[in-house]
Automatic annotation (TrEMBL):
The name this protein goes by in its record: NAD-dependent protein deacetylase
Molecular function GO terms recorded: histone deacetylase activity, NAD-dependent; NAD+ binding; NAD-dependent protein demyristoylase activity; NAD-dependent protein depalmitoylase activity; zinc ion binding
EC number, as in UniProt: 2.3.1.286
Biased composition (Low complexity): 348-359
Keywords: Metal-binding, NAD, Transferase, Zinc
Keyword Nucleotide-binding applies: no
Origin organism lineage: Eukaryota, Metazoa, Spiralia, Lophotrochozoa, Mollusca
UniProt remark on cofactor binding: Binds 1 zinc ion per subunit.
Species of origin: Pomacea canaliculata (Golden apple snail)
Amino acid sequence: MSTDNDKAIEEGSEGESEAASNSQTPSTMESLSRYLLDALSLAEDTTQILEEVSFEGVAKYITSGKCQNIITMVGAGISTSAGIPDFRSPGTGLYDNLQQYNLPHPQAIFMIDFFKENPKPFFVLAKELYPGSFKPTPCHYFIKMLNDKGLLLRHYTQNIDTLERVSGLPEDKIVEAHGTFHTSHCMECGKVYSLSWMKEKIFADEIPHCEEADCGGVIKPDIVFFGESLPQRFAECASLDFKKCDLLIILGTSLVVQPFASLAHRVSASTPRLYINLEKCDSSDMLMAMLFGGGFTFDAENNTRDVFKKAMCDEGCYELAQLLGWGDELQSLVKKEHERIDQLKTASMSGDGSLSDSSVVATRQRDVQQGTGASVSTTETHQGTEKSVDSNASPRQTETVIKES
Ligand SMILES: [Zn+2]
């Protein structure tokens, strides 16, 4: 789609192998100590910014004019009301359909080594969960509203469902930390394939192969598998954004996947953090909390900034919108956009009755000003074995990632 994007992808794949071979280089230690110093100096200023440390207090702060740079961090919980299950978690029922493929364990579907040997189970699951068959949720539109009102600095998502793009959030405002289905590439030659091309293969129950002469490599959507590098844009944006952040809003994630979860600790020690989720994260990143003083302090006596709102994401966003005086606006935006998507789907219903829903995003992309995106300089890795401390940006750095479950 965009050449910037394609370039980033190509550079990303180069970075992967280099990062993998350099995981123990001195630069990792160097960056860790730099991060430690950063974290310690930030920890000094704990001035209370919120008039009142509460959900209402956060709303007041947003309307005060002092809060110009909001960062949102989200996970699967913001897409569940769209009908997309948290399919990285076992027990959703999705994995049961894959018994016939003899997976060694459910997460193997998202392990790059397993995929290289046997991509079939992934594509079976991809068909079932194909992005584009779903509509963005009120929560997605709330985030878009933050942007429309000039308050959103950046949106960090762990989701690969592309619903942020469908909602109309500009590409340059989105960091897809775990990649996206939006583009795919050949694992052999790197050739980039579009969402619509990939969709055709997935729905034909084919394992997609490269069409370049003499290649024939398997085509993989650009989502980050365990064992693969995070997009370089992740580290690049994070290192610039979080020091500017006036308010961090965390939605629908239990904050267990690293390095994503550690982003919450990269804001300054005084920056208010609103966490909307059904369950409080156990704030068990104890190592992180001890080292960097960044643990959540929802229930602490000296809490000056952390607010937990126990709610479904949509419900929490509607409530916040109400407090901000945007309640009706959000409701009508959701209604209008859902109708628009329905109309587009009807209009593009193809002969065989399947939906050509990539047109939803394609139409959107024309409306959206193409962002330049950040230039690339670092690489982070998503792995499935052990959780590690987030060592902050250094060129060609590697990070280890886990989904705890
Ligand atoms: Zn190829």
